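# nightly structure sweep
# worker-07 picked up a monomer target from the shared queue
# config: single-sequence mode, recycle default, output format = structure tokens
# input follows
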Amino acid sequence: MKKKFTLAFMVLLVAVASCSFTNTSFENNDKDKLLLDLITYVLEKGHYEPKNINDTFSSNVFDDFIDIIDPTKRYFLESDIKEFEQYRFQIDDQIKNTDITFFNLVYQRLMKRMGEAKEIYQELLGQPFDYTLEESISIDYNDEAFASNSRELKERWRKQLKYNTLGVYDNKISDGLRVAGYTKTGAGEKPADMASVNTSIKGFELKSTDKLGDLTVAEIEVAARETTKNTLDEFFDFIDDLERKDWFVQYINTIVDEFDPHTFYFAPDDKDKFDISMSGKFEGIGARLQKKPEGAKIVEIISGGPVWRAQSLEVGDEILKVGQDGEEAIDIVGMRLDDAIKLIKGPKGTIVDLTVRRVDGSVEQVSITRDVVVLEESYAKSATVTREAKKYGIIHLPKFYVDFEDYTERNAASDVAKEVERLKSEGIEGLVLDLRDNGGGSLKTVVEMAGLFIKDGPIVQVRSSGKRKEVHEDKDERIQWDGPLVVLVNELSASASEILAAAMQDYKRAVVIGSKQTFGKGTVQNVIPLDNIVRSNEHGDLGAIKLTTQKFYRINGGSTQLEGVKSDIVVPDRYSYIDLGERDQENPLEWDKISPADYEVWNGYNDFETAIKNSKARMANNPQIKLIEENAQWLKRQQDQTEVSLNYEQFKISEEKSKKQSDYFKSLRDYDSKLTFESLKYENELFAQDSVLREKRNRWHKNLAKDIYVEEAINVLQDLKLNNFKGSNPKLASVKG
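# output follows
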């Protein structure tokens, strides 16, 4: 979670800047060494809980870096690892001496092995797979040893490629059988024109010359291998676009990740992407691109952007050349996608000339005036919910977004305040704030947002390493919404989401419904541009480091670190048994607690505990909830099944079993709460000009109607009764500006 400069952060900047980093400190003016020195210094001086860079640290970096770049053990040989082992306990010394010998050796060997891997997969995919063999593959690579020789490595690739192709082959066979008009009515039945065998399927057998639709079985097998080859060709094309600096960023982040899971180095391009994700906007043409051999293919046009407004391009068009307002165009075919995007993006008001191959094959030049592109899906949205002639409101917040260059431009707190006002004007009697899958964001916005629902008081406590705590308070006595409130969370609700849920829970201002516990990220990060630290720099933009500088605590004194927020009403979801939380990450900080802040529990409800009790009773007897619990347990069993048969008949048996289970859980998708969801007036006015937005909202409303968690949230809102603590009309409240 990123936060504006705190006092502790300012002290850190002064301390680092006083060290006078200049390029003359390094004999070869090497950018990699400069980065390594800067980052490790910032980590040692600024991290909330600095690690000792010693032999243990070195050994962890060794294992983690190898695991990151070769997780499936399909590149390196056992002999490579033995050669690397000489550096296992030297990396700490290399870090201190800005020595990158270990990285260079591993990188050079990886490039060699990847080149060999290309030859291996192309050779293996040129030969048919025998799906009648009784063999299997383990897809749990953690405990697998590295191949002892090239023959063993090639055999691993064969099984991996066969595994990748098996599902494609099965889909094509199944499609062919449907085209051929085959419908199985009994064991052993087969199409009349299929008399002999060489592909075995449960209940019947096929031979390679049997024709299913337009292709024979043998031709289907060839087509399946070709699909796998095309996928790998695209993957290695992406790998070929990576430069040495990209791999070095992986090495830097392996070192950084040893401190905690949320400290991270951003290369310059990554920092731009982070800023876009936090602000929800960028300057460009408003199209998402995918690299193809023929050029940059448009895969999505962003609603409201320049391309969408001008209707000048469509999905499927391919950009071949890029020019800047009449200047000579640059051919981008074969160019790294990131580099092509840099040419296409640009400041608002400028013109970019694109040479485009249309879907119909024609080629023409299109000029587009760049503008600010808003990623609508990044922002808060709301709807009304109607049940039994009573109206409620729901606000979905995907993240706690903010424009760090201009806080007043747009942020999550001010947007939620607007949505609350709009919902109030619709006459809602209760509000659901949906923070599921919300990974957090700006600390300032969450403090302001919590203040929308209480009179005043502390929201969260923050402590820097070895320093006294700070209490972040809402000091505005006005209340934006004083009616019944429910907060929805799940295992992926993290950081700022946990701050808000915890504050509402501690004040007893809202009922929290969701997973047994939320993600458990209780740390604060600052983003430090490394260019601010060096006095002179000839290497260009050095990027930035997102550094854990503080921990935050609930107002009751407990940390959300590792433990998260425990819901008042626990309901299972599909991921209840999947390892997703902070406790399942590498190197998390520990849980602890501090003294509580001074606060008073909200006195707005007269039946808070009764509402919770009633909800738990409903959940305990709800067949849909029981089905969700069963589904979650089944998903866990599926995840734990790591041995997969490569025999087609056994594969089909397993697939049929999984399909039966999947069909059993299909009713989860068919559930209907009978609730009615509608867009607000201002959005209905936008729909006349934006059919894409209308479709997005219709899809959202349809999914909400199937959402039992939202249904239960409405049940709880109906049960919550307000104390008449403000006189005759408890719904009236002054509005925070």
